[in-house]
Amino acid sequence: MWREYKYSFGLRYFVNFAKTLSYIVGSKNKLKRFKENESFSNVFQPSREQVVSGEFLLKGKWNKDFFKNENPIVLELGCGKGEYAVGLAEKYPNKNFIGIDIKGARFWRGAKTAIEGKLNNVCFVRTQIELINHLFAENEIDEIWITFPDPQIKYKRTKHRMTNSEFLKLYKKILKKDGVVHLKTDSEFMHGYTLGLLHGQGHDVLYANHNVYHNEGSPEEVTTIQTFYEKQYLEIKKAITYIRFKIK
Length: 248
Known about the structure:
With 248 residues, the protein is an alpha/beta fold. Helix content is 44%, strand content 19%. Strands 1-4-3-2-5-6-8-7 form an eight-stranded mixed β-sheet, with helices on both faces. Helix 1 packs across helix 5. It is globular.
């Protein structure tokens, strides 16, 4: 009994110590990444007050003042590590890409990769997605990518689903007349919810696929660019879905 108690106590102590050490190391890495983000020319981290008050001066001037060209602008919302934004920027050098996420320690990887690869057509903004109409002017954006968002399955979380009616209205404000939205997700729920909402509200569904890796004719940019977590989903044979649509 005493031996079992000592073993159990020691195991719990070791597990707690490992968790604490992991937390400390993770926190230090986050602080390091936040600091490095400040030195990156392709990262913007305005405060909420700056964004809402109109102090963010690139609104309506992204092509002229940052990208220095007139190429189409594509957003990735909830960009995470920035893998998709960077992948698209490599694939389409004649388009400009902007990754949006509230967690700067995540997109640090994408920003650093872009700098190391000398990709001048991609950048990142640390802010909340519901503030994008303060960052971009009407008709400034050509495309929006929503990649693997949290499906927010619980009913009380509906307002946080990134394809709900309110978010679609927000996207419409900044999209050009023929602007397109892409949704790529591993969530059957999110795929079905979005399709139902789009059809119910009369939006144009241009393409829908419930398993892009098992159906011929899937768009190349959907299957050739994969995020870290997407690769894990594919290893366990989880279907990846995709919808391309226009907001009426």
